[in-house]
């Protein structure tokens, strides 16, 4: 699993993925929406903006937006990656970025969803094992529940890599 989860870092270190200015925390609750038409207006919480990978922003957004359950849902049978939501986000993302992304960046967008979900699972588990010093916890096992949720989501995302690649490729046809 390490070879899959770390592939983006390996590609960046080898120069195949460029560093860009990225948000690095593009979950849905960091987007401000218009109250009337529910259109996304702006990404907020900019304290995490720094050099990073385009796939980090895409993958974290899909991890957040396309999860069919809350991030801390205890019933992991409810956790899946909703490909329709993923497609809607991918279309908007690629509409704005397709002309600037490299081929390798585009080829690894689906994989980035898996990598960022695994990363969050590890971060939640680490926080849990250290006594929850970083993430806010509403109850003693909150980070354990989040960990299990993200592991279930990562498994589902991995199983859907072919469909995710097809969705991304279809979106790219329109914008490239």
| C-alpha geometry | globular
The unreliable regions are none
Mean pLDDT: 93
Distance between the termini: 33 Å
Assign a percent range to the helix content.
55-70%
Q: Number of helical runs?
A: 8
The profile of the biggest β sheet is:
2 strands, antiparallel
Helix-strand sequence? HHEEEEHHHHHH
Radius of gyration: 16 Å
Strand content: 5-15%
Main-sheet strand order equals 1-4
The tally of strands reads: 4
Structural class: mainly alpha
Care to describe what's here?
The structure is a single chain. With 176 residues, the chain is mainly α. 55% of the residues lie in helices and 7% in strands. The protein has helices at 2-5, 7-13, 54-65, 83-97, 103-107, 109-129, 142-159, 161-175; strands spanning 20-22, 31-33, 40-43, 50-52. The strands form 2 sheets. The chain has a two-stranded antiparallel ribbon with strand order 1-4. The longest helix has 21 residues, at 109-129. The radius of gyration is 16 Å and the shape is globular. It starts with a helix and ends with a helix. The mean pLDDT is 93.
A few lines on this structure:
By secondary structure, this protein is mostly helical. It has helices at residues 2-5, 7-13, 54-65, 83-97, 103-107, 109-129, 142-159, 161-175, and strands at residues 20-22, 31-33, 40-43, 50-52. β2 and β3 (40-43) form a beta hairpin.
